[in-house]
Amino acid sequence: MRYSVRYYAASRQWFVIDSSVGIEIVGMYGSKNAAVRHAKESEEKWLRYGRVGETGMRPAA
Q1: Rounded to the nearest 5 degrees, what angle is found at the Cα of 42, between the Cα atoms of 1 and 57?
Q2: What is the band of 57 on the pLDDT scale with cuts at 50, 70, 90?
Q3: Residues of 10-43 as b/e, b for ≥16 C-beta within 10 angstroms?
Q4: For 56, left (φ over 0), alpha (ψ -120 to 50), or beta?
Q5: 50-57 own/partner pairs: CB under 8 Å, 24+ apart
Q6: Most exposed of 4, 33, 37, 56 (fewest Cβ within 10 Å)?
């Protein structure tokens, strides 16, 4: 999975992490449910559209 959710006790927030380029924070939330929803939606978008941009291929018209 490209996107993950982590809790940081120091800030009391849930972080959505993009692991494709190391560790990049793409969202911060006060609730776990909101963070998980963001991670799932981002993962689905990446699976649907992101691979096209990364491979240089264009979708069929």
Answers
A1: 80
A2: low
A3: eeebbbbbbeeeeeeeebebeeeeebbebbeebb
A4: left
A5: none
A6: 56
pLDDT in tens, 3-33: 999 999 999 999 999 998 788 999 999 999 9
- Rounded to whole angstroms, how far apart are CA atoms 42 and 20? 12
The single residue listed with the structure tokens 């999975």 is 1
- For residues 13 and 6, what is the distance between their CA atoms, to the nearest angstrom? 8
Checking DSSP bridges between strand 24-29 and strand 13-18, what pairing results, if any? antiparallel
Query: Among all chains, which residue has been given the structure tokens 């120091």?
Result: 10
